[in-house]
C-alpha cells in the first residue's frame, strides 16, 4: 500500500510539473504575442527614402501643372449595385452620370477579395502578397490581433512600402485620406506616416471596436461614433480639401465606410429605397459622389481632374455581384470583379465601356504616369499604366495575368478569356446531426469567362493547352514570390 501511495504521489508531482511547464510555455507564448512588434529593416527604410527623393527630383522637372487625382473607394460595393450596371432598385444617378461622361471597365478586379489586402494592393501597385499584408487586420488588443502577433504575422502595412500618396507627395501634390484606412491602427503605418498630409476617418471596419472618428492623430468623435453621420461628414471634409487646394495639384483618397455591414443611412434617406436599407446607404454614397463632382465643376477643375470610382471587393450577403459567381472573400468573379468608372472630360472619351482586363494594382502606375512621377526602381510594380486605354488610344492594355489570392494562397489566374482555378474545398451542406457544414475538394478547373462569366462549366477538356499554360503561369508566379517574397530588385 505504501508503495502504491508513493507511486501515486510521484505521478501527481510529475503531472503537476508537466502542468506548470505547460502553463509557463503558454504564458510565455501569450507574453511574446503581446510583446511582439512588427519591425522593418533599417536598410529597406533607407532605400525607400532615397527612392522617394529620386522620384521627387524627376517629377520636379515637369513644367506644366499636373492634373488632380480623385480616388473614391467603396467598401463591399458590388458590380451590380449601380444603375449603369443594370440595377433597377438602387438609385445611383451621380455614378450613372459619371459612367455616361467617362469610361466603364467591365473586367476590373480588386487586388484581393477582402478589404485590408485589397487596399494594400491599391495603394502600392503590388499584389498584396508582396506587401506581406494578406489578411484582414484587427484593432490592437483584439483576440485576432493577439493570434496574428503570436504567429508573427503583419498587423499593419510595412513602412518600407511606397504608397501612392508618398509618391505623389514627392511629386509636389497635396494629399489627403478621408474615410476608412484599415492598414494598421498605430505608427508607423497610419495615414500621415505613409504620405497623406491630412487624415479624417476611421481606422478599420465599422463592425470592429472601439469605433471612433479621427482627425489626423486625434479622436474627434469617440466610440461609438454615430455611423449615420459618416458619409456626409466624409463628404464635407472632401469638399473642404478640394476648395483649400484648388490652386495646386492634389490627390484625394476618399474611402467610404459603406456599404460594409452594419448599414446606417442618413435620416433623410432612410426608408426611401425600394432596395431597403442597403439601397438607402448606396444612395447616400451616390449623393456624396455627386457633391464631390459638383464641387470640382463649381471650381472649374473638371478638365484638370481624373475621378475614379471603384470598390475594394465584391458584396457580402447583401448587394449584387451582377451575374457572377461568388461574393466577398471568394476568388470566384463575384468576390473580386467590381465597378471601375473613370471620368476626365477632354481626356477620357465619354460613354465608352471597355473589356480590357484591369486590376487595382494598375491605379498606382496610372496615377503616377499622369502626375509625371516615375515608378520606383527598387521594387517590382505589378500594375500597368491604363492611360492608353483611358485616352482611347489603345483598344486593350497589355495582356498580362491577373492573380486571385485568398490570403497568401494563389487560387486562380486569368489570362485573356480563360481563368484557371486551383483545386479548392467547397461547402457541401450541413452534416446530419452535427452543427457544422461539410466540404468537398473540387477542381482544378478552366473557365471561359467570355462565354461563361458565371464560372458554371469546366472546359479544361476542350482547351487543354490553355489549362496547362495558366497552370504553368501560376506555378512560375508562386516560385518567383517564394524566391523574392517582397519583390525587391537587386541593388
Outline the fold blueprint.
Blueprint (H helix, E strand, L loop, with lengths): L1 H34 L6 H18 L8 E7 L18 H9 L1 E7 L5 H10 L3 H4 L11 H8 L13 H7 L3 E7 L17 E5 L10 E3 L2 E4 L8 H15 L5 E6 L20 H23 L6 E7 L21 H4 L3 E4 L8 E8 L3 H9 L15 H4 L11 E5 L2 E7 L2 E4 L2 E7 L6 E6 L2 E4 L15 H20 L8
Parallel strand pairs: 1-7, 1-8, 2-10, 3-4, 3-7
Antiparallel strand pairs: 2-9, 4-5, 5-6, 8-9, 11-12, 12-13, 13-16, 14-15
Helix pairs in contact: 1-6, 2-7, 8-9
Task: Note down, in words, how this protein is organized.
The protein is an alpha/beta fold and 491 residues long. It has 13 helices and 16 strands. The chain has helices at 2-35, 42-59, 93-101, 115-124, 128-131, 143-150, 164-170, 230-244, 276-298, 333-336, 363-371, 387-390, 464-483; strands at residues 68-74, 103-109, 174-180, 198-202, 213-215, 218-221, 250-255, 305-311, 340-343, 352-359, 402-406, 409-415, 418-421, 424-430, 437-442, 445-448. Strands 6-5-4-3-7-1-8-9-2-10 form a ten-stranded mixed sheet, sandwiched between helices. A four-stranded antiparallel sheet has the order 11-12-13-16, with helices on one face. A two-stranded antiparallel ribbon has the order 14-15. Helix 1 crosses helix 6 (143-150), helix 2 crosses helix 7 (164-170) and helix 8 packs parallel to helix 9 (276-298). The longest helix has 34 residues, at 2-35. The termini are far apart.
